[in-house]
């Protein structure tokens, strides 16, 4: 369903290479994304999982890389252990005159069952705004 697709865009005053490293090197990802990511590789088929405490509930995030184009695009299959549903998150980078535009697309939210507050569209939109427009933006600056 198209209405369940979430898109978050932001421009960064840096090269595509620098932004790519921030979103694919685990040491950098821990600085702005989730600080407990155990490992990460921008390689097709790479999988990782880690627990996220959302306050009332804890979620085991399970990521699998399903598409990679070096310094252009990385796409995760994103699931939660114990919950039905499969989501996909794509980070797409476009360089423009020394700046880089990041377009994040989150698809599949409607597939998650049972519905819990953390899986609402509003919560996901707010989460991506926080991670991309605040945390990553501040990290790159």
Q: What would the average pLDDT be, to the nearest integer?
A: 94
Low-confidence stretches: none
Could you name the CATH class?
A: Alpha Beta
CATH superfamily: START domain
Helix content: 25-40%
What fraction strand? 35-45%
**Radius of gyration from the CA trace?**
15 Å
Shape: globular
Total count of helical runs of at least 4 residues: 3
Second CATH tier, the architecture: 2-Layer Sandwich
Strand count, sense and closure of the main sheet? Answer: 6 strands, antiparallel
Cα(first) to Cα(last) distance is 35 Å
| Class per helix and strand makeup | alpha+beta
Strand tally: 6
Element order: H for helix, E for strand: EHHEEEEEH
What multimeric state do the chains show? Answer: single chain
The CATH topology is Alpha-D-Glucose-1,6-Bisphosphate, Chain A, domain 4
Number of domains: 1
Task: Identify the strand order in the major beta sheet.
Answer: 1-6-5-4-3-2
Which key terms come to mind for this protein?
about 140 residues, Alpha-D-Glucose-1,6-Bisphosphate, Chain A, domain 4, six-stranded antiparallel sheet, globular, single chain, alpha+beta, about 25% helix
Give structural notes.
- With 141 residues, the chain is α+β, with helices and mostly antiparallel strands.
- It has one domain: 2-Layer Sandwich (Alpha-D-Glucose-1,6-Bisphosphate, Chain A, domain 4).
- It has helices spanning 16-24, 26-32, 121-140; strands at 6-12, 47-53, 58-69, 73-80, 87-96, 99-107.
- Strands 1-6-5-4-3-2 form a six-stranded antiparallel sheet, with helices on one face.
- The radius of gyration is 15 Å and the shape is globular.
- The chain starts with 5 loop residues before the first strand and ends with a helix.
């Amino acid at each position: 369903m198209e209405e369940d697709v979430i898109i978050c865009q932001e421009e960064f005053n840096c090269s595509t290479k620098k932004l790519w490293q921030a979103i694919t090197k685990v040491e950098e990802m821990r600085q702005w994304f989730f600080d407990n990511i155990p490992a990460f590789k921008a390689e097709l088929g790479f999988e990782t999982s880690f627990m996220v405490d959302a306050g009332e509930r804890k979620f085991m995030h399970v990521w699998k890389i399903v598409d990679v184009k070096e310094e252009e695009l990385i796409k995760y299959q994103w699931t939660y252990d114990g919950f039905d549903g499969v989501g996909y998150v794509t980070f797409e980078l476009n360089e423009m005159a020394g700046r880089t535009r990041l377009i994040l697309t989150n698809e599949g939210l409607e597939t998650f069952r049972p519905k819990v507050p953390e899986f609402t569209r509003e919560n996901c939109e707010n989460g991506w705004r926080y991670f991309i427009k605040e945390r990553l933006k501040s990290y790159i600056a």
